[in-house]
Amino acid sequence: MNLRQSLSRERLKQMPITGLLTDLVSWVREPRQEWDVWRAFATMRREAAFLRSGNFPPPDRGRLLIANLSNSICWAQMHSLLAIGLRMEGWTVSVLTSRLHPWANRVFTAHGITDFVYWEDILITDDEITTCEREAAGFMKRDLTFREVKNWQFEGCRLGPQILSTVCRGVRQGAPDIGDPDIRNRIGATLPLGLSTVFRTRRLLDRVQPDLITLVEANYAVFGIIVDVAVARGLNVVQAVQPSRDDAIILKRLTPESRRFHPSSLTPETMALVRNLAWTESHERELHQEFSDRYSGKWFLQARNQPGCLRHSKDEILRDLSLDPSKKTAVLFSHVLWDANLFYGEDLFEDYGDWFIQSIRAACANPRLNWLIKLHPANVWKRSFENASEELAEITLIRKHIGDLPPHVRLLLPDTRISSYSLFETADFGITVRGTTGIELPCMGVRTLTAGTGRYSGLGFTTDFRTREDYLSCLSRLDTLPAMDHDEILLAKKHAYFLFRRRPWLIRSFHSLFHPSQKLHPLYQYFSLNVSSLEEIRQNDDLKKWAVWAGNPLETDYLEPESPRRDLSPTTH
After folding, report:
1. CA distance 288 to 500
2. Which of 530, 341, 313, 265 is nearest to 426 (CA)?
3. Does the pLDDT at position 122 exceed 80?
4. String of b and e for 134-143 (b: at least 16 CB within 10 Å)?
5. Would you call 413 helix, strand, or coil by DSSP?
6. What is the per-residue pLDDT across 18-46, written as a single tens digit (0 to 9) for each?
7. DSSP-based three-state secondary structure for 20
8. Residue 98: which of 26, 19, 37, 34 has the closest Cα?
9. Which of 43, 51, 42, 185 is nearest to 534 (CA)?
10. Is 252 helix (H, G, I), strand (E, B) or coil?
11. 519: how many CB neighbours lie within 10 A of its CB?
12. Burial, 93: exposed, middle or buried (Cβ in 10 Å; 0-12, 13-18, 19+)?
């Protein structure tokens, strides 16, 4: 299907009956599920009645554009609840949405937000369509590699990562062969629409003239291009994502400098505060409590990565896996290969699959260490959500490129009963590209190697490399690396403290709810209000803090104030 045909199909979505047809399909496919959603929505609408009463101050601050091209109830609620704080400060609110997203649109309306801009109504000219088709055809004539596709840009927008993310998720592979006809066809089908999004976004921003844009997803498909165009125009763009804890949201302002930062990262300005922090016993206790909460099952969003996991001692792990207790142990923490993180930083290797296999080869060649290959636990729930039944991509790669693993290399599947925290206590060395383990392990004195740049590489507490040759050479002599020193460990702790304790915006006026279904459900996660009036929201002060920060484009990282109850005596821990 060419671009003109694709855009013509989108125009059919302009019919008012589109949303009703979407509802009908949902009722036919999942009647019980749809009934659950309608009941939850009735409760949601009752809770939010006071938000439809018109008691907000006259709008005089500016226009917020919520970019919400998703039918996710959770996303629409999060946006609606964040918008409360801005509406209380005098902001006008518009929503970028689609008629194919009736549930999201109902959620916005229930919260008193009714100014919708439909994506399918944003059209481009015939000349622009011709330009998109010409650029796409020229690109597809090249002899492409994964890295070349990843780095491809069009008029300042990084289309390459958006295209590859779609392809990787579609085939659930971490190392798709760009020369494969099916992969090339998938790229070719995605590219023209990506190009057209650049022109459509410009027209959208010209029409709405927003002063502030909020979104949950800042990459993937349309979202990444909207952000690139908006940031290039100097607009105030904020990403809001939920971290591993259920009672908080991470807020990141996207600027030309921070656009490629992970939302859960610290800017150089924040890192200056980190380095100057006088570490105290209280900080130490708070960080210890954070790790305990993350791996004790307190937070649902983190616990889904550790279902049924148990604490194991180092001796138990080595004994059960028939490893040599006289050797040091290295743990390679794999990423979800087909859900590749293509947006933050540069990789030493062609892709995650290439890194995974070459690292395991190096492990096989170094029997002076015990090696554990830990497959990412998110494989379990992500595959369940997508009804994936095929063999794990990691298993396929190992069988194809390596074969049987030697006795000193053990594979831990995503559903292992050994908790990640137990591995932290077992490891002498950790290996990742840019995973969260690179933040956690150094706090415990575990030297951690990275195979790419990212949210913490180069800060001073990880071992980073300029080339893949240097990285692989280090793996061959990993057992000779010195232990982390006091200053490295302390810096890692300060960094983790700011990231886990100061960066999350703590929510008080609403809370998270979760559906028990193991499959993807419209109510897998949603929110419930804790308040019944604007006055209660003012008393909570959480939405006020968010709104003030959002309106100040000079601050990139949202930081919660330090707790006033803290022992300020410095510690040397």
Report:
1. 11
2. 313
3. yes
4. ebbeebeeee
5. coil
6. 767 777 777 777 788 888 899 999 999 99
7. helix
8. 19
9. 51
10. strand
11. 12
12. buried
Segment (H or E) for 236: strand 236-241
Q: How far apart are CA 204 and CA 222, in angstroms?
A: 12
How would DSSP label each residue in 466-495? SSHHHHHHHHHTGGGPPPP-HHHHHHHHHH
- Please tell me the chain's helix, strand, coil percentages from 3-state DSSP, rounded to the nearest 5: 45, 15, 40
Residue 147 exposed, middle or buried by CB count within 10 Å (0-12, 13-18, 19+): middle
The two tokens of residue 1 are 């299907």
List C-alpha distances in Å: 225 to 19, 388, 447.
26, 29, 37
E strand spans, 451-551: 504-506, 510-514, 525-529
The dihedrals phi and psi of 404, each to the nearest 5 degrees, come to -70, 140
- What is the distance between the alpha carbons of residues 172 and 391, in angstroms, rounded to a whole number? 10
Phi, psi of 105 (to 5 degrees): -65, -35
Per-residue model confidence as pLDDT tens digits over 210-256: 999 999 999 877 899 999 999 999 999 999 998 888 999 999 999 99
Rg (CA), the chain: 24
Predicted local distance difference test score (pLDDT) of residue 568: 37
Closest residue by Cα to residue 174 from 374, 396, 466, 360? 396
CB-based contact 374:391 (threshold 8 Å): no
| First-last CA distance in the chain | 62
* Nearest residue to 260 (alpha-carbon basis) of 173, 185, 152, 342: 342
- Residue 189's pLDDT band, with cuts at 50, 70 and 90, is confident
Q: Which of 302, 285, 363, 304 is nearest to 328 (CA)?
A: 363
| Three-class secondary structure of residue 325 per DSSP | coil
- CB atoms under 10 Å from CB of 313, counted, come to 11
Asked if residue 272 lies in contact with residue 459, where contact means CB atoms within 8 angstroms, the answer is no
> What token pair was written down for 23?
């509802």
Three-state SS sequence of 339-350: HCCCCCCCECCC
Could you tell me the two tokens for 461? 């507490």
Beta carbons of 140 and 187 less than 8 angstroms apart: yes
What letter would DSSP give residue 189? H
Distance between CA atoms of residues 356 and 338, nearest Å: 12
Structure tokens given for 344: 């933050």
Q: Which tokens is 561 given? A: 């104030």
What is the spatial distance between Cα 249 and Cα 508, in angstroms, rounded to a whole number? 11
Rounded alpha-carbon distances, angstroms, from residue 371 to 147, 330, 508: 29, 5, 44
List, as one string, the DSSP characters of 23-86: HHHHHHH-HHHHHHHHHHHHHHHHHTGGGGS--SPPP-SEEEEEE--S--HHHHHHHHHHHHHH
SS3 133: helix
Distance in angstroms (rounded) separating the CA atoms of residues 507 and 452: 33
Q: Which two tokens stand for residue 112?
A: 């008193």
Pairing of strands 525-529, 510-514: antiparallel
Instruction: Round to whole Å and give the CA distance between 492 and 57.
Output: 45
